[in-house]
Task: inverse folding
């Protein structure tokens, strides 16, 4: 176990431990400050909060927002909800996931509505909301940022 990381996780957990319902704020802070919730972080957080590892693990794995692996260089999230599906989101998703399969610098995720339905297919590229997406627009933006 990385003792520096364990100390950082413990400090985050202790900072929130006295608050009401501290587990979710702790997990958000770990992701924000350290990039992801590593498997070994679960034991540290459980120890500080006097919870079982299973309790913490269950929460970490239930919510997709709590990354469990280190972040990659670029993240594309594509909307797969109905309004975007009606204007071609499936084809964009299929093309983008196929094109970047095996690319360790690009992670493709799915979201079910960004609230940008009128401009579908919608998605985010490195956190920037985009509308009227095509696979070619995703490629161009990723290439420009590499
Ligand atoms: S359905 Fe895609 S943004 Fe709402």
Result:
């Amino acid at each position: 176990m990385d003792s520096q990381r364990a100390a950082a996780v413990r400090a985050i957990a202790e900072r929130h431990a006295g608050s009401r319902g501290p587990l979710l704020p702790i997990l958000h802070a770990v992701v924000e400050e350290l990039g992801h919730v590593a498997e070994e972080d679960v034991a540290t957080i459980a120890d500080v909060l006097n919870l079982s590892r299973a309790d913490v693990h269950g929460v970490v794995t239930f919510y997709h927002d709590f990354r469990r692996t280190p972040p990659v260089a670029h993240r594309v999230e594509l909307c797969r909800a109905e309004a975007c599906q009606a204007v071609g989101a499936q084809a964009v998703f299929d093309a983008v996931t196929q094109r970047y399969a095996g690319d360790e610098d690009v992670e493709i995720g799915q979201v079910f509505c960004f609230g940008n339905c009128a401009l579908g297919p919608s998605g985010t590229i490195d956190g920037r909301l985009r509308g009227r997406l095509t696979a070619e627009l995703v490629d161009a933006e990723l290439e420009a940022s590499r």
In short: The two ends are 32 Å apart (CA to CA).
